[in-house]
Write a structure and sequence with these properties.
InterPro entries: AAA+_ATPase (IPR003593), ABC_transporter-like_ATP-bd (IPR003439), ABC_transporter-like_CS (IPR017871), P-loop_NTPase (IPR027417). This is ABC transporter ATP-binding protein. The chain is of the alpha/beta class. The chain contains 11 helices and 14 strands. The chain has 2 domains: 219 residues, P-loop containing nucleotide triphosphate hydrolases (Rossmann fold, 3-Layer(aba) Sandwich); 68 residues, 2-Layer Sandwich (Alpha-Beta Plaits). 35% of the residues lie in helices and 28% in strands. The chain has a 6-stranded mixed sheet, with helices on both faces. Strands 2-1-4-5 form a 4-stranded antiparallel sheet, with helices on one face. Helix 3 packs across helix 4 and helix 5 runs parallel beside helix 6. The longest helix has 18 residues. The chain starts with a strand and ends in a 6-residue tail after the last helix. The relative contact order is 0.14.
């Protein structure tokens, strides 16, 4: 349905996106992951026809949208990272305003507003000012705006940032249902790996402007199939112990996060004696040493050297 071909974007001397290639089949939910500054938002802006690429192409059903962006705007819904609503209008008034921008009117607009309010669970708050809404309710209304014109493709840029767990779960279930009921194609970016695990059929991992890995969840995890991920917890963090691990040739990567140390080693290497030796040499008290089943977060750390939220 959608194909991105060798897409690049330069802002003067800064190379934000570097030859990105990706595709979305009809009815897929595809995750686009990357740390802050990876180039995700710029890529999304080019796909949405808001930013002109420096080179490359975006094709919708094999037709370029670069010279004719109107064709994608008719079938695209965008849920931006920042709330894009008028706070001094009611939920219904916001939907009426954006519905007219989508060239809806009369009974058609009224019916779509009723349908969308029901989908996002805000029918009973339709007459309330948006400034009285919680963060989760604003996020849900933001999604409602993107659904008004029955888009075939929807781009959701971190739609659950800063909201409570109940609203977050509601949004995730809504995305699943839209995909199931309408066969809607979704491009989903998130800082929460568990959301991507729950929603996405395939995943692209982006860093420093380039796609560095892609595939199904299992294919991505298999990147670490020849390695073990070991989680080390200590009584207190000891920089000498961490440095000793980083200087150990058999250890592929050392990451410190959430008061724990994660190391990656080849599966054939028995590293436990090495860990114990360095702990003894640096007076570090070990609380636990556990071998983990590789997760998407582990692969992301392995590929980028950063946590997704960094």
């Amino acid at each position: 349905m959608l194909e991105v071909v060798e897409l690049t974007k330069r802002f003067k001397q800064f190379h934000a996106v570097k030859g990105v290639n990706m595709f979305l089949e009809k009815g897929e939910i595809v995750g686009l992951l990357g740390p802050n500054g990876a180039g995700k938002s710029t890529t999304i802006s080019m796909i949405s026809s808001l930013v002109q690429p420096t080179t490359g192409d975006v094709r919708l059903n094999n037709k370029s949208i670069i010279k004719n962006p109107e064709q994608i705007r008719k079938v695209l819904g965008v849920v931006p990272q920042e709330i894009a609503l008028y706070l001094d209008l009611t939920a219904q008034e916001n939907l009426e305003f954006f519905g007219r921008i989508y060239r809806l009117s009369g009974a058609e607009l009224k019916n779509k507003i009723n349908e969308v309010l029901n989908q996002i669970g805000l029918t009973d708050r339709r007459k309330d000012l948006v400034k009285t809404f919680s963060g989760g309710m604003k996020r849900r209304l933001n999604i409602g705006v993107a659904l008004l014109h029955d888009p075939e493709l929807i781009i959701m840029d971190e739609p659950t940032v800063g909201i409570d767990p109940q609203s977050r779960n509601y949004i995730l279930e809504t995305v699943k249902q839209l995909n199931k009921d309408r066969d809607m194609t979704v491009l989903y970016t998130s800082h929460y790996m568990e959301e991507v695990e729950f929603l996405c059929d395939r995943i692209y991992i982006m860093d420093e402007g380039s796609i560095i890995a892609s595939g199904t969840k299992d294919e991505i995890k298999n990147i670490l199939s020849s390695e073990n991920t070991i989680l080390i917890k200590t009584e207190r963090m000891n920089d000498k112990f961490i440095s000793a691990l980083k200087n150990e040739a058999v250890i592929t990567r050392v990451t410190v996060q959430n008061e724990a140390i994660t190391i990656i080693v080849p599966k054939e290497v028995n590293v436990f004696r090495t860990i114990i030796k360095h702990a003894e040499d640096t007076n570090t008290v070990l609380m636990s040493v556990d071998v983990k089943t590789p997760t998407l977060e582990d692969v992301f750390l392995h590929l980028t050297g950063r946590a997704l939220r960094d």
